[in-house]
Amino acid sequence: MSGATERREALVEVYREASGCTLCPLAETRTKVVFGAGNADADLMFIGEAPGAEEDRQGLPFVGRAGGLLNELLGEIGLDRDSVFIANTLMCRPPGNRDPQPGELEACRPYLLEKVRLIEPKVIVTLGNFATKLITANQSGITKVRGRPQVHELGARTVHVFPILHPAAALRTPGLRATMSEDFATLGRLLAEPAPEQTQAEAPAPGPMRGEDQLDIFAP
Q: Do residues 86 and 115 make contact, with C-beta atoms less than 8 angstroms apart?
């Protein structure tokens, strides 16, 4: 993708397809698909676990208390939600906020990779244990790997992956708030570094997609 307008238009097309997704049983229990939101030309992308109850109602990621803390942490490094893109490993809320199941992750994976391919972020922040293990393909706990940049290939992109605690952890344990501020300071420095060298050719653009719904949720 050559520019923000093209990226945004392509993401809207993928959103249309995702809005009608019935590839896993979560389609039967969701209120809204939580595709993701933010800047289609962002250098920084966040990946969390799955939508919660409020996200399911609004169709937007990180709109509850955890989202409020994420907004505060972004402000500490001079960013806001309009300058980043926020998504989850799943686009639909699992009943009772249970852990995502393998079939659900497999159904959502192509959409997640396509978001990464189109947005072309320089840094992907994984929020919490589950997203970190999934994206890095490593079962090390978040407390062992948080705050340490890694390099991975994802969505035909070579990116910095930066694992941090989920904001909900700091809400449960206020003493972790300072740890998160430290990690965001490191994140700010990482964003100032060059993007990793691309070692893999871009995947071809997908064919035409169809969908019934459209929501304009990407910053121009």
A: no
Contact yes or no for 128/142 (Cβ under 8 A) = yes
Tell me the pLDDT of the chain (220 aa) as tens digits.
457 788 889 999 999 999 999 999 999 999 999 999 999 999 999 999 999 999 999 999 999 999 999 999 999 999 999 999 999 999 999 999 999 999 999 999 999 999 999 999 999 999 999 899 999 999 999 999 999 999 999 978 899 999 999 999 999 999 999 999 999 999 999 999 999 998 754 444 333 222 333 333 444 4
Domains and CATH numbers, the chain: 4-196 (3.40.470.10)
Residue 124: phi, psi to the nearest 5?
-115, 120
